[in-house]
Amino acid sequence: MCPTFETRLRECLAQTPLLSRLPTLAGPLLERRAKDAASEALDGANLEGLARVIASNADAARFLSHRPSLLERIATASPQVLQTRGRELETLPAAHQGDLERFLEWLRLTRRDETTLAACLDLSGSLPFEAISVFLSQLAEACTRWALEEAQAQISAERGPVLSVLGMGKVAGREFTYHSDLDLIFLYPDDVTEPVQASRTAQRLIQYLTTMTGAGVAYAVDSRLRPSGRQGALVSTHQAFERYQSERAATWEHLALMRARAIAGDIPQAQEVLRRARAAVLQEATRPWPAIAEMRARVEQERGRGSSDCVPLKTGAGGLMDVEFLAAGGLLERGLWPASDEPPSVAWMLHGTARGPKLERLMEGYHFLRRVEARNRWMTGRGDESLQLNTENIDVLAELVEPGLSPAQLTTRIEDVRSTIRTGYAAVVAAGTIDALCS
């Protein structure tokens, strides 16, 4: 007699702290889907990934119980499926356009389907997290494009101003993770004399992504990186954006500009606007490190204070922000944008300005912290910037970060990595040049 679906799930989690969570969290899935052909066909890495997804995230477990087609996709998924699906998402048209309620439901269910599939491949170890991150970014770009098209269609049946959407930070570099916010800037052509329609389109795009429906929220959206922040207009003309960046933007805004990419709307035109804006900033090559050090210290003071039980993975000393500032700061110092159309990831930017063992150790630590952040966000279901070490599920997190890793080992690894990153960051700031990493 073949083992039951539940038995096979339990076998995947044997000798791990995830096993004790399975009976509670897997209940709805076992009740509804245990006899499905997909459940019976699941095996190997796909079964292991599913088991880890179910036992680490109650919301995903409930969602899977209502999505038999998703279970079928997981059962037959190969490690190459995300690369193929990512390319499809770049041109896939939206469903139910013109029917706003059905469109919003489809958008959210698509985002959840694709994210859950990615999580199964992620937690099974079938793909490195960097590949998962690229796919999650492609998914976020597609959802933004769909929301923009629907917003423009709802406002006017006629072709209005071609609004462009700049993705900033993680989505620009295709370094998205679970529960990342979408940092967006909206641009429109200079020959549009009435900006109201462009502003309304941007407002509706944000609403379509952020409104809570029965299927949840698609993404949180942050538009504060726009010129003049909260005090500035939601949309800017191309010329106004370029002029602001070259004449009024602060150093932190120049850092953000380095991690920007057009992701929706008139992408070629927006990329050209970005190229000109960056060129104007970079030709004024300066030593940005004193300003960066001051800004970084302020962030640590306001948002990066940790404790024995709380690790600020992003904003604290030796956190992800140290590496992100080094990457963008190195480009500002060099005054040169690499001749490439690659998404501006942190790794791509840093390798364009520095080489050597110090840099490779720093990047190894950066990738480890990103993996810890991703697993923590997956478990909590929130975009947490900090890691709580005193939770009862820290052993589960350690196991998700690396099979067999204990909480004590996880804590030690994080401490060591943060020390390595902070040492590299401090060396650059003290020397006043990214060359401090080139050895």
Give the helices and strands, then pairings:
Layout: H1 5-12, H2 22-25, H3 27-33, H4 37-41, H5 44-56, H6 58-65, H7 68-76, H8 81-89, H9 100-123, H10 129-155, E1 164-168, E2 182-188, H11 196-210, E3 221-222, E4 235-237, H12 238-247, H13 251-258, E5 260-264, H14 267-282, H15 289-303, E6 310-312, H16 320-334, H17 346-351, H18 357-380, E7 386-388, H19 394-401, H20 407-431
Parallel strand pairs: 2-3, 2-4
Antiparallel strand pairs: 1-2, 1-5, 6-7
Helix pairs in contact: 1-5, 3-6, 5-6, 5-9, 8-10, 9-10, 10-11, 12-14, 13-16, 16-20, 18-19, 18-20
Would you write up a description of this structure?
With 439 residues, this protein is α/β, with parallel strands linked by helices. Among the domains are: 128-282, Beta Polymerase, domain 2 (2-Layer Sandwich); 289-437, Four Helix Bundle (Hemerythrin (Met), subunit A). The protein is 58% helix and 6% strand. Strands 1, 2, 3, 4 and 5 form a 5-stranded mixed β-sheet that branches. It has a two-stranded antiparallel ribbon with strand order 6-7. The radius of gyration is 23 Å and the shape is globular.
Brief descriptors of the model:
single chain; 439 residues; alpha/beta; Beta Polymerase, domain 2; Four Helix Bundle (Hemerythrin (Met), subunit A)
- The proportion of strand residues reads 5-15%
Rounded mean pLDDT is: 94
- What is the CATH topology assignment of one domain? Beta Polymerase, domain 2
Q: Low-confidence parts lasting 5 or more residues at pLDDT below 50?
A: none
**Total strand segments:** 7
* Apparent shape: globular
By DSSP (H or I, 4+ residues per run), the number of helices equals 20
H and E order: HHHHHHHHHHEEHEEHHEHHEHHHEHH
Give the end-to-end Cα distance, rounded to a whole number of Å.
61 Å
CATH class of one domain: Alpha Beta
What would you say the CATH architecture of one domain is?
A: 2-Layer Sandwich
